[in-house]
Amino acid sequence: MSGIILNQRFQKVEEMCLEHARILKQNLFAGVQFKLPKQIMELNSEILNLSSEWSRSFPKNAHSQQNAKNDGMEDKLINLYKQCLNEFVTDLYEQFKETQNQKDITLQLVAKHYHDYKAYSYWLYKIFYHLDSSTLSTVGADLHSLSLEAIQKGYFKEGKEKLFSTILDVLLESRQQEILLDKKVKSLCELFIVMDAKSVRLKYEREQSMYDYICLNFQETEKSYRDNFENKFIDETKKFYKVQISERKNLGAIEFVRWALKVIQLEEQMSLESYSKSFDKIKNSLNQLFVKEQAQRLSTTTVQYLLSVDGITQLGELYNLISREKDCVKFIAEEFTVYFLSQVRQVNQNISDQSKQQSQGQNKQVLAENLCNQILEIMEKAKDIIKTQMQNSSKLIQAYQNAFTTAFNEVDEAPFYVALFADMLIRSDKGINEIETDIKLNKIFTLFQLLYQRDKFLQHHQKFLSQRLLNQINQNLNLEKNLLQKFKGETQTNVLAQLQNMVNDIQQSLRFISDQKIHKNQKFELSVYLLSFGCWPIGKIQDEIIPPLQMINSLSLYEQIYQEKNNGRILQWTFNYGSGEINYKIQNDKYYFSVTTLQIISFLQFNQEDQLTIQQIYDRTQINQIDLENSLIPFICNKILQRQKQDLDTFSDKNEIIKLNLVFNNKQKRIKMLPHSKMQPKRERKLGELTQEEKEYEEQLIKQREFVVDSQLVRTMKSKKTIKHFDLLAQCQQMITIFKPDVKFVKKRIENLIERGYIKRDEVDCNLYHYLN
Amino acid sequence: MKPKPNQAQEDIMIKDLQRVFQLNDLQAREILNQAQWNLQKATNYVLDLQKSGSKIEEQFKKYITNGQSVIDENGIISFCKDLGIDIMDPVILYISYIFKSETMGNYTKFDFLYGFTLLKIQSTSDLKRELKRLRDELNNNREILKSVYKYCFDFAKKKNRKDIDLPIAQGLWDTLLTNTFPIMKKFMNYVGTIEEKDVKPISRDTYYMVWEFCVQIGEDLAKYDYKTGAWPTFIDGFYFYLFPNHKQ
């Protein structure tokens, strides 16, 4: 076919096309549903034919230039396509220009324009789609991209300022009213999102009757989006809120928090709805304005106040806002620490004041109870807040630990108080209710974890444990074991093994008793606790004491039975411990006295004679003066025995006679006569100075600590061979949990190790140590 | 070329040499070292010393009282008098260092033999002439001062102990260090404030570190790191004496 005929046909196509385009345009403007007329399909095939026939007749070869007169059919068709588009765009733009700054009208109009244009492009595409592959090679863009280009050049480029300010205006209204308004703003934003894309597809959602440009390569649009929309938008947003915030400077903190959270929620919602591409950046900007810049101010004014008035939920609200920036939680944590530090210090001060007023041993229990319970209460409150309001934030937990650990250890006698408190709790436990017992153990353990001087605590605990194990009728061995197990999980020390041995001793002794039934058919009922030497804080074993005849048989029998089972062990009787009961018959009455072993031994001497001198009692029993005083004076005070001197005088005169009161009579038949501080001679004790015993304990503690640090140092040196002073120090302090060695202490041990030849300093670098084998 | 002997072999050779001659460990070690640990060579050297040292022996005899084998404190007093120096003069410590004398308060015959020979002198009056040179060396040569300072620890230390008493350390610091290091004046004040019950002997490490303190820190106390530095606690004590508010 000749070019002329083809061109004629082209003319026809052109006419038809433009005609239909106009009809389509009018329909769209009128918002009328339209149907594609059959001619559209004819147009489509005609275009195809034109194009293919032309290329058959006038094939392109590599060398031929495009003849201006003899335009390629394809070029003509492409231009026709472009023309249709441009006509439409021009019309749109005319309408757009006419709108003033009436945001609602503009909004509606543009939204409709965009929709209409997309619809138009889509149907136009249907007509021309055969050209798609060739446009790509000739013009470098496919049909959809061309359509986008058209609207970009003819509409968006000129109108984008106006579009942008329309968006801002609409959103401003949203912000002022604090609710999300018009959703149409989304289409305007879309314009910004897709502009500059070089490769797009136009999609049609039949159900929603929506058309969308789908960008195939987002990177093409990035710059345009950012420059034309995102950056400007965020700037405006920031400006707006900066003003808003400064207007609310005098607002109460919680009101501010609530407002901030509302604002943030709104902005995020708006963003998700219309310009979700910018969500992250907007979130960051809001966090910058509302959180990073406000966190410190808000925290320092509110946290402590809210804690003091129990404003728990408001704390939660504050946390919700500030935790949007993880780093800013530290401000809350700092205030938290300060508050609880001062709370605990107040308790400490109260306890210290109380303790200065009284000095009796009895009241130490009250002090311990007050201190421990109050602190546990405060800890409970703090923990609860962190759990329920602050999502167990690790920074808050750290602050919690720091505050309580620091403040609690400022109490000088903290280890003693905790041990005493533990003693009280354990003694009061009947072992019935497991849950209650667990709560008690956890209380003790919580306080234990706070302590620095754990070795001191264990020293006291050992003493109390010994008393409990030896004197209580119903010991709670399982409870003791559980508690020790908890301690074991927290720290390392030999002392724990000792404590566990103590409990085991009692357990085995009880088992032995029930196994052997030793006290069957004995005039003198005996039950024995067998204690492992070295584990018990017993002190001197007074095995030089001479038991009375009645006892000796039972004691020997026990020894015999035990040796049969465990050959070769050395047994020593600790008469200075233990307790029992004396049956006393006088004047046809029978009395039962609760007494200690020493009391039994000394009083039973009066079975032989009605009266004895102190010297005689001593000769027969070998009990020392002080113990004798403590043992017999209760008898004297209760009128069972009589003496020549005053009741509470010492036994310094060895010739003084003590005799039985042969007319003793008491309504009470069961009398407790254990040694008591009120039934003793007055003995000098300087207040404030440590007794001999306490001094020994202190020395023992220091030696233990030196050993702990030495072994840790040597262990570290052995493995590292060469190490800097600072690292050695840090390693040491880190690894030792049984107490908190300070820098001076560790340094002194290092010096000691240098002197003993375990370590030497490097010759050149004084801060470096070498291990010497 | 004989291989270099190890620690144990060296000790054996020192003992061997000492079996024949009356000299102390330091001197034996030094002589053997010079002789490349050839026992024969070393022996010959000592024999030569003894042969040519008759005049020196005479000088030595001047200061001993009848029957003694070593110069005692009285002898040293008159020795210093002859030299025209005070007994607390640092130069006498330098001289002892050259002699490689073992114990403060005594000079042995070999001290004199060995030391005088090294100094290439024969008499006390010769030594007197050398004093100025020796003094200058001591004051101007840091390395020499350091060696003498370190040597003095063992010199002043009793045989059965590993440390020296504080007053003795005080004396050494005063004699050797206060003239060269101005900070030592304050240091001596500090030592003076230590209470009786807190007085403890000074270990070798602490003693050596006082030198390091003078050299590394001196007047510039801002450099002193009491938190993470490896300074002995005795010197920390000095720092807290100067800055009580830095204690935590």
Automatic annotation (TrEMBL), chain A:
Keywords: Coiled coil. InterPro entries: Cullin, Cullin-like_AB, Cullin_homology, Cullin_N, Cullin_neddylation_domain. One of its GO terms (biological process) is ubiquitin-dependent protein catabolic process. It comes from the Eukaryota. Residues 413-636 form the Cullin family profile domain. It holds the Pfam family Cullin_AB. One of its GO terms (molecular function) is ubiquitin protein ligase binding. Residues 470-516 form a coiled coil. Belongs to the cullin family. This is Cullin family profile domain-containing protein. It comes from Paramecium pentaurelia.
UniProtKB/TrEMBL annotation, chain B:
One of its GO terms (cellular component) is ubiquitin ligase complex. Residues 51-243 form the DCUN1 domain. Residues 121-148 form a coiled coil. GO terms for biological process: protein neddylation. Keywords: Coiled coil. GO terms for molecular function: cullin family protein binding; ubiquitin conjugating enzyme binding; ubiquitin-like protein binding. The keyword Signal does not apply. The keyword Coiled coil applies. PANTHER family: DCN1-LIKE PROTEIN 3, RP42 RELATED. Neddylation of cullins play an essential role in the regulation of SCF-type complexes activity. This is Defective in cullin neddylation protein. The lineage of its organism: Eukaryota, Sar, Alveolata, Ciliophora, Intramacronucleata.
